[in-house]
């Protein structure tokens, strides 16, 4: 996927970050829950179905927001430069990492860092170092992307 640097503005990125932070803060303040997507989705898929209304609402909001954006702004057309199999493998690896790290980038990176959680600081450090190494190997060793 490529970033459209021509239309990127720091202001839109800052507004998006503020919206994500506000949503995470509201969920924590009013529901006492961390906005970690893997935990929210895992709770919905769990056999325990009590108290999942907020999880369903959160997931519905994540699905409806891009749909609303589509109607109020020009449609986005991302370019994915890999095969469906690579996307599936990547998804499985992300899922395995989420289980191994007891959380995902949203839970650790947004909520955990904001709470100054040491575990989240370590997790985000590992996420980022792994991402840097992966991109380096992909682009400079294997020669994919660029």
Report on the architecture of this protein.
Helix content is 71%, strand content 0%. With 146 residues, the chain is mainly α. Helix 2 (37-45) crosses helix 3 and helix 5 (105-114) crosses helix 6. The chain is globular. The relative contact order is 0.10.
Write a concise keyword list for the protein shown above.
146 residues; 6 helices; single chain; mainly alpha
Q: Outline the biggest β-sheet.
A: none
Question: What's the shape?
Answer: globular
Gyration radius, in Å:
17 Å
Stretches where pLDDT falls below 50 for ≥5 residues?
Answer: none
Measured by DSSP, the beta-strand proportion falls in under 5%
Could you report the average pLDDT, rounded to the nearest whole number?
84
Number of helical regions? 6
Count of strand segments: 0
Classify the secondary structure makeup into a structural class. mainly alpha
Fraction of residues in H or I helices:
over 70%
Straight-line N-to-C gap: 11 Å
List the helices and strands in order.
Answer: HHHHHH
Write the layout of secondary structure elements.
Layout: H1 10-31, H2 37-45, H3 53-72, H4 84-100, H5 105-114, H6 118-142
Helix pairs in contact: 2-3, 5-6
Summarize the structure.
Helices cover 71% and strands 0% of the residues. With 146 residues, it is mainly alpha-helical.
């Amino acid at each position: 996927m490529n970033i459209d640097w021509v239309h990127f503005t720091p202001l839109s990125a800052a507004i998006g970050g503020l919206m994500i932070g506000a949503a995470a803060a509201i969920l924590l303040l009013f529901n006492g829950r961390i906005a970690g997507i893997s935990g929210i989705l895992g709770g919905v898929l769990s056999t325990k179905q009590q108290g999942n209304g907020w999880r369903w609402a959160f997931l519905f909001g994540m699905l409806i927001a891009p749909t609303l954006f589509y109607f109020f702004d020009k449609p986005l057309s991302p370019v994915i430069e890999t095969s469906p199999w690579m996307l599936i493998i990547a998804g499985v690896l992300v899922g395995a990492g989420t289980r191994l790290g007891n959380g995902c980038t949203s839970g650790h990176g947004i909520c955990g860092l904001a709470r100054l959680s040491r575990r989240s600081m370590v997790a985000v450090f590992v996420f980022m170092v792994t991402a840097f190494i992966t991109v380096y190997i992909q682009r400079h060793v294997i020669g994919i992307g660029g």
